[in-house]
């Protein structure tokens, strides 16, 4: 018998491998985002769909360009860029001019990711970097809201969507007036609450029959998709829980002191981008700490900052900045929350 | 520890992984004896510690069981001849599965011999003083048969100021594919109990606990039925989880205590032995024999006749594989289990005292193409897998920038015992365990240089 007539493989232990890879995780996050996207299209129509396509394609092209420039193998196939593109679109107003969406997509990947070294090395969530840029660059466009479920939304673009590149978008006020249902004022529930102390019904918030960014409106769908990811262990549910708990706890004392002026915790949780941020953005693996205490602390920072910005800042929404700040703090959080290792001895003496 | 584990009453440790066990191929197969190879290779350094020193000369006839090498120090054991035959060489350098070539005694087997163990003498072990008992254990050449091959008698003589009051017997066998300990627990139960009693006598320990993973309930019941009535020895089920059979993990599961970092189990009054070691002690000591054979699981995709074989120590791997038959397509031959064992390039390595299994794995094409490596995406899977609660992700990033000092000083590199859990779960396919091995080796070299 002729043993070993062919070469054997030499390899160091372990020789078994769990069959899960980065692109599987990323693909699953994309799957989980699809229902959110679908709802967004149902709600806001063809404009939302076009916006998603534009941001995603821009992100992919930017990634391919930077891979080419840096002579790295093309990493477009790992789906992480698709996540960035979709998330970015979901955080923008549905009638956001498409050319501005393309700018946001380019900045997200170029500034938010590629310059840091690509997948795994970015400090902050790329989608939010892109959004923060356009928030500063186009402050009017990014706060122009259109009503959900407008008639004819599947056939007709929201007029502002089709603005020519580098041109100011047309005013949508007249367009909104034409088809507004129940006297839509162009304000999100958060803005209504903040400036006029009008609270929106929790049920509408849950189901998403309100104005807002393309993908942030339906809390139920976001939660279901998040649960899918958490069950498949592709998302850290503790971060989302930390964000929501901290947001509720921070709101509570203000609400108890002055319920007339401050929103209720449940309104705080269900409105705006908090749920989308808590489930899909804060849990971005690269920007969040990994230690057990660290993830809770990180979540809590986001929840706390969001509420503080919403209540006392000039903006109506604070999720984006809260997450970006927490992303930046993440390495610090990680270094102060290193776990106690097995059998660790108590430090002798004081140094 | 997941939420469920926190509330379960099952004895276990935190973190760890659940690889597919692959034990069904051999778990039901009784231990069978393998024939004697024509030539035996007995390396002088099969155990941790100082190599043994040959006491035979070329051309000398040896009898099966006869001592052929004496211990090279306190942390060392003698070697015994696995066959009746004639010594062909005493200092030839042979390949080992673990690295550099080491000197070995080569013995040509007498084909005509009936290979009876003649070299023995009955002793009443219960009349021996603890000191003499420890000596007898060293004389038997016994080492940890679970894989570490650490001389058994050393653990019975703890450093000054420490004493052993509990003995833990490791019947976990958490490595996938391996079933030799499972069969030993089923077939050599009485000998295991006897071995435990001898070890307890040697250190005057009051209690012994046998830990068995709960996927081997038949072995658990078998041991339960044969435990002595005085209650000094008990048997407990622990969760089936890798690396349950690691010394530190099993102590944590059974006693809820931790071995201090960088320390030995004796610091908390514990000594841990493998069930295979106990069975051999119970078998050998009453007749003052030496360790000349062990049970080896030969399994995996590439093996035609998988099984649990009683193999003479020194049998060349080539002979073992010829006996069981190999398929044409396989990728790796692993000495030991697939999580911590080593691949071998040569078939001329010997089955030594520490080899608990030979696993031949299927080619890669079975599981699609070669896994692609991604950068670390900080998913944290390795943190929730590491049984020591290290931060493998951080250690890996430090390894990539070659900051080996910080790995040791800031992130407890030396507490890693290379179980491979982090590499197993890593979705980016990073060879973390390998990084840590290299880092440790370089740190060791730097320290030697500084001296």
UniProtKB/TrEMBL annotation, chain B:
Binding-site residues, [4Fe-4S] cluster 2: 386, 416, 419, 422
GO biological process, one term: electron transport chain
Subcellular localization: Cell inner membrane
Top EC class, one word: translocase
Free-text remark on how the cofactor is bound: Binds 2 [4Fe-4S] clusters per subunit.
The protein's Enzyme Commission number: 7.-.-.-
GO cellular component: plasma membrane
A Pfam family the protein falls into: RnfC_N
UniProt keywords, alphabetically: 4Fe-4S, Cell inner membrane, Cell membrane, Electron transport, Iron, Iron-sulfur, Membrane, Metal-binding, Repeat, Translocase, Transport
Binding residues annotated for [4Fe-4S] cluster 1, in chain numbering: 376, 379, 382, 426
Top-rank lineage group of the source organism: Bacteria
Main subcellular location: membrane
InterPro entries documented for this protein: 4Fe4S_Fe-S-bd (IPR017896), 4Fe4S_Fe_S_CS (IPR017900), Ion_transpt_RnfC/RsxC (IPR010208), Nuo51_FMN-bd (IPR011538), Nuo51_FMN-bd_sf (IPR037225), RnfC_N (IPR026902), Soluble_ligand-bd (IPR019554)
Cofactor(s) needed: [4Fe-4S] cluster
Topology in membrane: Peripheral membrane protein
NCBIfam families: PRK05035.1, rnfC
Protein's recorded name: Ion-translocating oxidoreductase complex subunit C
Highest classification ranks of the organism: Bacteria, Pseudomonadati, Pseudomonadota, Gammaproteobacteria, Alteromonadales
């Amino acid at each position: 018998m002729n043993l070993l007539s062919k070469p054997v493989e030499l390899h160091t232990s372990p020789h078994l491998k769990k069959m899960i890879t980065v692109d599987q995780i990323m693909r699953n996050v994309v799957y989980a985002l699809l229902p959110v996207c679908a709802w967004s299209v149902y709600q806001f129509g063809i404009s939302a769909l076009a916006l998603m396509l534009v941001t995603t394609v821009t992100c992919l092209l930017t990634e391919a360009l930077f891979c080419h420039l840096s002579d790295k193998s093309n990493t477009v196939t790992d789906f992480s860029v698709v996540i960035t593109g979709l998330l970015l679109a979901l955080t923008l107003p549905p009638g956001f001019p498409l050319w501005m969406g393309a700018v946001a997509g380019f900045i997200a990947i170029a500034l938010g990711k590629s310059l840091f070294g690509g997948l795994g090395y970015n400090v902050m969530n790329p989608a939010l970097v892109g959004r923060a840029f356009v928030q500063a660059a186009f402050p009017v466009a990014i706060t122009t809201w259109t009503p959900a479920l407008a008639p004819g939304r599947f056939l007709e673009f929201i007029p502002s969507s089709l603005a020519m590149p580098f041109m100011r978008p047309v005013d949508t006020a007249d367009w909104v007036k034409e088809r507004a249902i129940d006297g839509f004022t162009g304000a999100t529930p958060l803005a209504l609450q903040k400036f006029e102390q009008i609270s929106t019904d929790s049920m509408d918030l849950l189901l998403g029959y309100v104005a807002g960014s393309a993908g942030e409106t339906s809390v139920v769908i976001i939660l279901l998709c998040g649960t899918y990811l958490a069950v498949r262990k592709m998302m850290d549910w503790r971060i989302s829980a930390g964000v929501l708990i901290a947001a509720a706890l921070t709101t509570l004392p203000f609400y108890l002191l002055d319920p007339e002026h401050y929103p209720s915790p449940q309104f705080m949780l269900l409105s705006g981008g908090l749920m989308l941020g808590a489930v899909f953005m804060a849990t971005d693996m690269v920007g969040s700490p990994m230690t057990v205490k660290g993830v809770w602390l990180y979540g809590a920072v986001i929840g706390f900052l969001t509420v503080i910005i919403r209540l006392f800042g000039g903006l109506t929404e604070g999720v984006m900045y809260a997450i970006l700040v927490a992303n930046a703090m993440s390495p610090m959080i990680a270094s102060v929350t290193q776990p106690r290792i097995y059998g660790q001895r108590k430090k002798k003496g004081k140094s | 520890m997941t939420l469920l584990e926190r509330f379960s009453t099952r004895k276990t440790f935190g973190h760890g992984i659940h690889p597919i066990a692959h034990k069904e191929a051999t778990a039901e197969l009784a231990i069978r004896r393998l024939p004697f190879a024509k030539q035996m290779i007995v390396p002088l350094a099969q155990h941790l510690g100082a190599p043994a020193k040959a006491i035979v000369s070329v051309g000398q006839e040896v009898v099966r069981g006869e001592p052929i090498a004496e211990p090279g120090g306190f942390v060392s054991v003698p070697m015994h001849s696995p066959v009746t035959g004639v010594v062909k060489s005493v200092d030839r350098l042979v390949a080992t599965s673990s690295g550099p070539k080491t000197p070995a005694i080569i013995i040509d087997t007498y084909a005509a011999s009936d290979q009876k163990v003649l070299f023995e003498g009955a002793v009443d072990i219960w009349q021996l003083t603890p000191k003499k008992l420890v000596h007898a254990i060293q004389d038997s050449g016994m080492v940890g048969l679970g894989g570490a091959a650490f001389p058994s008698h050393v653990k019975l003589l703890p450093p000054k100021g420490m004493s052993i009051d509990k003995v833990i017997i490791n019947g976990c066998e958490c490595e996938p594919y391996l079933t030799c300990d499972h069969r030993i627990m089923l077939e050599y139960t009485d000998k295991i109990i006897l071995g435990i009693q001898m070890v307890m006598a040697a250190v005057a320990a009051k209690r012994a606990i046998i830990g068995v993973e709960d996927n081997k309930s038949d072995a658990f019941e078998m041991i339960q039925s044969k435990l002595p009535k005085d209650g000094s020895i008990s048997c407990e089920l622990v969760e089936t989880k890798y690396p349950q059979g690691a010394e530190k993990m099993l102590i944590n599961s059974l006693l809820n205590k931790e071995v201090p970092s960088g320390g030995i189990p004796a610091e908390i009054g514990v000594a841990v032995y493998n069930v295979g070691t106990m069975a051999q002690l119970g078998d050998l000591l009453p007749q003052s024999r030496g360790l000349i054979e062990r049970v080896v699981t030969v399994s995996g995709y590439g093996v035609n006749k998988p099984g649990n074989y009683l193999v003479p120590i020194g049998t060349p791997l080539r002979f073992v594989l010829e006996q069981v038959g190999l398929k044409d397509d396989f990728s790796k031959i692993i000495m030991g289990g697939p999580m911590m064992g080593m691949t071998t390039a040569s078939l001329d390595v010997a089955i030594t005292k520490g080899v608990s299994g030979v696993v031949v794995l299927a080619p890669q094409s079975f599981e699609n193409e070669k896994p692609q490596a991604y950068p670390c995406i900080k998913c944290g899977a390795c943190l929730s897998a590491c049984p020591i609660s290290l931060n493998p992700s951080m250690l890996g990033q430090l390894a990539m920038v070659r900051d080996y000092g910080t790995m040791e000083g800031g992130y407890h590199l030396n507490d890693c015992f290379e179980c491979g859990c982090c590499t197993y779960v890593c979705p980016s396919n990073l060879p973390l365990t390998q990084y840590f091995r290299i880092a440790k080796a370089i740190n060791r070299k730097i320290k030697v240089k500084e001296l």
